[in-house]
Amino acid sequence: xxxxxxxxxxxxxxxxxxxxxxxxxxxxxxxxxxxxxxxxxxxxxxxxxxxxxxxxxxxxxxxxxxxxxxxxxxxxxxxxxxxxxxxxxxxxxxxxxxxxxxxxxxxxxxxxxxxxxxxxxxxxxxxxxxxxxxxxxxxxxxxxxxxxxxxxxxxxxxxxxxxxxxxxxxxxxxxxxxxxxxxxxxxxxxxxxxxxxxxxxxxxxxxxxxxxxxxxxxxxxxxxxxxxxxxxxxxxxxxxxxxxxxxxxxxxxxxxxxxxxxxxxxxxxxxxxxxxxxxxxxxxxxxxxxxxxxxxxxxxxxxxxxxxxxxxxxxxxxxxxxxxxxxxxxxxxxxxxxxxxxxxxxxxxxxxxxxxxxxxxxxxxxxxxxxxxxxxxxxxxxxxxxxxxxxxxxxxxxxxxxxxxxxxxxxxxxxxxxxxxxxxxxxxxxxxxxxxxxxxxxxxxxxxxxxxxxxxxxxxxxxxxxxxxxxxxxxxxxxxxxxxxxxxxxxxxxxxxxxxxxxxxxxxxxxxxxxxxxxxxxxxxxxxxxxxxxxxxxxxxxxxxxxxxxxxxxxxx
Length: 557
Description:
Blueprint lengths: L2 H12 L6 E5 L15 H6 L1 H7 L3 E4 L27 H13 L3 E6 L9 H9 L11 E2 L22 E3 L5 E3 L14 H16 L4 E4 L16 H6 L14 H12 L7 E4 L6 H7 L20 H18 L4 E3 L8 H4 L14 H5 L9 H17 L3 E5 L20 H5 L43 H5 L5 H15 L6 E2 L7 E5 L5 E5 L5 E2 L7 E3 L6 E2 L3 E5 L7
Parallel strand pairs: 1-2, 1-10, 2-3, 3-7, 7-8, 9-10
Antiparallel strand pairs: 4-6, 5-6, 11-12, 12-13, 13-17, 14-16, 15-17
Helix pairs in contact: 6-8, 9-10, 13-16
């Protein structure tokens, strides 16, 4: 092999993430190997052939670390271990090896904004008291009022309720999320050094990349006097906001990038960064920083041609700005599943539509068109998988799973349900219900009694049912991912005018075309109907709520 070929393969290995299909696993709800009702790492190992058959390039694991599950695992008690209920580090190593053997890379969640209140650092801070080095790792303040019994500010946490909690000696600590999730002080060198150690720990175990939770919230300016809630909310998010998307956070990620680049190929990272402008998001995706950042625009878009085209165009422009590739997401562990969203009426005048009203009402059958939702979910997925950039898929969407609305209050687990906040008091349990693997059995083949209730209708969506049906959602995903690998081209597209506002059509550089009909009237494909390789065609036309892929003869081989 020539040196040039060796170098080309190194470049390809380093750039694997740019157009990867990444499958998000919520470990506690994927597969349960030991029968305790909680998904685990050996459960993932037992399903690696399923993942290989699906055709994904990587898996992203939501947190699997030791946790009291105050926030579904995002309250981390130890960043360099596996929750004993989910397995051991040896189990983790076996999982990485099994996935790598099948050509599937591994991305893990890193939660750097806060720890669990059970983390040894926080327990040390409680014991050490005022003015201690241990408390300097977190954000402690004196209270207000004559006796300090009032919180330092009137700020509200993301999950609702006060953002400050008082400890036994009278001081207060800051938590942007649940009470059990105290925010770290990223001005502290010890905090920064420890996370570098964590990144190396997992990289040394073969992890290929990291998803960075709330990457925009780490650094803070809490110079006294602290602003009121009203003053805080009125401040622009321009890099100088006290809590959100500060310019100095990129100093941290530049240091992380130097760690990632110690490895061959370099480790990758993708930022969860909710920021105010495309320009600010591009900074997280820069080659000097994390390298990629999520765009969540399709999570809040209706099934509408104009909205989709605008989102696509804007995000491709952003990727050129950053030099990164863009990301496409229709569902994840925080939002109502898209097969459900697309079956609900459009909510006029709403900037965000997550299906919260329908779920809060208990999921009434007369409030949703399930067939329309699934049909549109198929169309949106094929459009997404045809776009340049990487696609992030959420476990269960390949089965066409609907959101589970019928969860009794006493069965819910998400702190957002109990505390309110940005999730309207509803919570996110409905998209985290354990997967159905078989149509029969007490937990549909998941393992033990599922930790969240599975509805009876899950039987119709079980893997064994769909694997045997060539017309199922699972069969569609498998074929789409197989063809996507063969059709993949450079990271550009060219829009093709269709003469209809409700039909989008684009071509990739190699001639691969994607056509999506967002309307109800069929769209005539003409002679191109003969070159359709995926998607429905009826008498040479594309039905409404559908997508087809067109590939000229010889392109697939």
